[in-house]
């Protein structure tokens, strides 16, 4: 793979021992000093709207090279160094020789206009126009392209170039969403917020990014210190370190001149134990260690602060996702694109203190040994690379034995999924293959990834023959989470047991606490309260979220201390939970603490005011703070920027409802439906609005539409059924409830409605199992328990 021109320049400089001062000039492109082709401005502020913002604290990667030549050479060959570049002959990999591509009604033509790289495609207004490609994004196995707009937005095109060799299927343009049309009205269209570089991409493809969103003008003035991922992306601002080196590199100076460094790890001993083939001992890890540095970009998370520096835990500046349904499988395997960190933090390796650089060179990002040989650093091959362990004859990974591929550590313990059409990513949870869970729960497994022509039951039987029936591994929550998401009451006790396990990975425990809220009980409440003091900040965040909807007095008593938590994500979760707490009457210290938390939460949402979710969060917070006019302004501003953002429309309509402005609420919802007719939430909200206006026939029609558009939402079916009952259509209501219960057999509201109907019909045979299910769901409700017992009697 070739390197861009600036990379070759620096490599040559390193070989010649050129001075650091000249290296600064050599990597001008890396810092973003060059203007885009033809010298056109990059936003409302001209070139400076997207250019180097090299502060006095940042020195640039070139300044590091004179002392760290080998590290700089490795970095220059890495994908980090080429994460983003100015579009030019040395950096563009795609074919711009007047190539035309199509995808489900979308078309694009890639061509050259003198020195400029151009694309002719559909713009935000749905009309075809020519756009200049200003930047490349990534390098292998695909390269994306960015277009700069006059308001400072950079948008990622939907067609990417497959940079793999032609023999591997590459050297072609392809659409990143191959299975769905992408009209200009779609939120995923390349001109819209989901493809916006300034928010979605910049932080992890450039160094020291400042988004620079201007709310008043709805423009961006985004800056960075280097256009790609440079040394200071991971090490922090380097001016202090450079000064320390220039003064003689005194080893007694803390942090070697850096303002902050990743938390150190005690020296590990990874010597394999001959009895097990694996290291006998682990090592402690501290918050803000190396893994947290990598997690800043290799985790599924949202950003609430741009003030990251090494040594801060991820949750101090970002809000990580949990192992949520849709993002992860029930057992924690990656499903959507989740970027490794969440998977790794489920692993036994993480629990033992392993860090990313134990396997990957931190500068080249390559493995420290070829393929599965990297595992042999800590695990004895003579024990694991054997037929007794693998059940397969020996051979190289991927080498075909009769009818099969020979597995290795990676293929079995790090199965890959392909994202962005051509980019395979390995799951870093290092789990034991569990085809038996595939049989029971439908989760994927590594065995049938290779043996695609065989059922999971075949693989499960084989694994049991080799290793016996009792093989749980480190990740033990799959069945409990699966049952919980199905609503099965039996999941409660399983989740409670898991929540009490000291060795449970924090990210999994936070997910378990979240799933436990499906089953309210005294035991659930006790587990949640205990989780408020858990060492892992995301467990504390999950526990705080579970308090939503409880009385203010309860929330204040349990959560107020966490307003002073050591981790910002916890403080912010406490702030939003307590947003309706009046300041008047609080002791001075508690008032100050609450005000500080409120200010931090509002600042975090202001940082993301370019996003519909940022506006929605801020509006909800302001409304609970007793500021309805300010909340309305946020919602309206968000809708002005993103008219198709249906949650904003629903929230604005609800605000109007609370103020008795029902006609305005209806107008907002009808506009939203016209823009996004298949959004269930707006139709549901409109149905409720029409019901409040006593326009019952219209209301039932909209509620029915919502339930049909989102059958996965039991609440929509429940409200539709209630509306049918209320308008004298009991038989139709009964049908709706029965169909919904077939999809959601443990939904308490649907069960209550069905039980009520059965009781009114004096149908004890139908009522008895419904009452028992409800009793199982609500074990602390004596009334429903008595009813279930009475209905059981012959």
TrEMBL record:
Residues 397-406 have a biased composition (Basic and acidic residues). Keywords: Signal, TPR repeat. Residues 63-89, 198-236 form the Cytochrome c-552/4 domain. The keyword Metal-binding does not apply. InterPro entries: Cyt_c-552/4 (IPR023155), Multihaem_cyt_sf (IPR036280), Multiheme_Cytochr_ET (IPR051829), Paired_CXXCH_1 (IPR010177), TPR-like_helical_dom_sf (IPR011990), TPR_rpt (IPR019734). Residues 385-406 are annotated as: Disordered. This is Cytochrome c3 family protein. It comes from Xanthobacter oligotrophicus.
């Amino acid at each position: 793979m070739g390197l861009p021109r600036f990379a070759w320049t620096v490599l040559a400089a390193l070989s010649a021992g050129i001075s650091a001062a000249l290296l600064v000039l050599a990597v001008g492109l890396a810092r973003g000093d060059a203007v885009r082709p033809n010298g056109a401005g990059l936003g409302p502020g001209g070139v400076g709207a997207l250019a180097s913002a090299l502060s006095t604290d940042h020195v640039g990667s070139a300044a590091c090279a004179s002392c760290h030549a080998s590290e700089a050479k490795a970095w220059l060959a890495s994908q980090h160094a080429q994460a983003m570049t100015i579009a030019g002959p040395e950096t563009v990999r795609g074919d711009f020789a007047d190539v035309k591509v199509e995808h489900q009604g979308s078309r694009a033509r890639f061509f050259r206009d003198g020195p400029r790289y151009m694309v002719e495609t559909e713009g935000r207004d749905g009309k075809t126009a020519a756009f200049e490609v200003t930047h490349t994004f990534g390098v292998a196995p695909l390269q994306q392209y960015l277009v700069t707009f006059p308001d400072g937005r950079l948008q990622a095109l939907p067609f990417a170039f497959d940079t793999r060799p032609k023999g591997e299927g590459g050297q072609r343009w392809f659409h990143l969403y191959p299975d769905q049309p992408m009209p200009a009205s779609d939120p995923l269209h390349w001109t819209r917020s989901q493809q916006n570089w300034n928010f979605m991409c910049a932080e992890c493809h450039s160094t020291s990014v400042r988004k620079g969103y201007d709310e008043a003008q709805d423009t961006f003035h985004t800056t960075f210190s280097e256009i790609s991922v440079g040394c200071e992306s991971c090490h922090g601002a380097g001016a202090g370190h450079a000064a320390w080196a220039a003064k003689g590199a005194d080893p007694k100076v803390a942090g070697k001149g850096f303002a902050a460094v990743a938390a150190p790890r005690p020296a590990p001993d990874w010597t394999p134990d001959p009895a097990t083939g694996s290291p006998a001992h682990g090592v402690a890890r501290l918050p803000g260690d190396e893994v947290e540095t990598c997690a800043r970009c290799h985790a599924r998370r949202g950003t609430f602060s741009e003030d990251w520096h090494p040594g801060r835990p991820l949750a101090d500046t970002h809000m990580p996702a949990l192992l949520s349904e849709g993002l992860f499988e029930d057992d924690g395997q990656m499903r959507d694109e989740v970027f490794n960190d969440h998977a790794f933090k489920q692993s036994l390796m993480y629990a033992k203190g392993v860090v990313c650089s134990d396997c990957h060179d931190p500068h080249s990002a390559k493995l420290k040994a070829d393929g599965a040989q990297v595992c042999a650093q800590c695990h004895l091959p003579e024990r694991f690379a054997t037929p007794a362990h693998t059940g397969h004859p020996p051979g190289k990974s991927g080498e075909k034995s009769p009818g099969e591929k020979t597995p290795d550590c990676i293929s079995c313990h790090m199965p890959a999924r392909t994202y962005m059409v051509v980019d395979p990513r390995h799951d870093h949870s290092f789990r034991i293959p569990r085809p038996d869970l595939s049989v029971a729960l439908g989760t994927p497994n590594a065995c049938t990834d290779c043996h695609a022509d065989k059922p999971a039951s075949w693989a499960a039987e084989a694994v049991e023959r080799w290793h016996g029936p009792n093989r749980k591994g480190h990740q033990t929550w799959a069945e409990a989470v699966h049952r919980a998401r199905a609503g099965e009451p039996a999941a409660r006790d399983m989740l409670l047991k898991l929540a009490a396990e000291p060795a449970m990975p924090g990210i999994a425990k936070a997910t378990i606490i979240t799933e436990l809220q499906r089953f309210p009980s005294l035991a659930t409440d006790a587990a949640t309260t205990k989780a408020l003091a858990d060492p892992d900040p995301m467990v504390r965040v999950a526990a705080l979220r579970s308090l939503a909807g409880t009385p203010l007095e309860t929330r204040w008593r349990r959560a107020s201390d966490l307003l002073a938590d050591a981790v910002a994500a916890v403080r912010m979760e406490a702030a939003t939970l307590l947003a309706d707490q009046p300041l008047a009457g609080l002791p001075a210290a508690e008032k100050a603490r609450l005000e500080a938390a409120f200010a931090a939460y509002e600042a975090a949402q202001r940082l993301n005011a370019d996003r519909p979710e940022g506006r929605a969060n801020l509006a909800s917070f302001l409304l609970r703070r007793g500021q309805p006019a300010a909340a309305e302004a946020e919602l309206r501003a968000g809708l002005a920027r993103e008219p198709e953002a249906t949650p904003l429309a629903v929230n604005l309509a609800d605000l109007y409802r609370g103020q008795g402005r029902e006609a305005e609420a209806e107008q907002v919802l009808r506009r939203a439906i016209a823009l996004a007719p298949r959004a269930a939430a707006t139709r549901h909200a409109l149905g409720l609005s029409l019901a409040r206006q006593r326009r019952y026939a219209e209301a039932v029609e909209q509620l029915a539409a919502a339930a049909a558009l989102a059958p996965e939402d039991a609440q929509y079916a429940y409200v539709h059924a209630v509306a049918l009952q209320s308008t004298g259509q009991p038989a139709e209501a009964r049908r709706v409830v029965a169909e919904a219960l077939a999809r959601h057999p443990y939904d308490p509201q649907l069960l209550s409605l069905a039980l009520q109907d059965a009781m009114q019909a004096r149908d004890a045979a139908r009522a008895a199992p419904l009452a028992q299910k409800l009793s199982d769901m609500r074990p602390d409700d004596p009334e429903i328990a008595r009813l279930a017992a009475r209905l059981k009697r012959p």
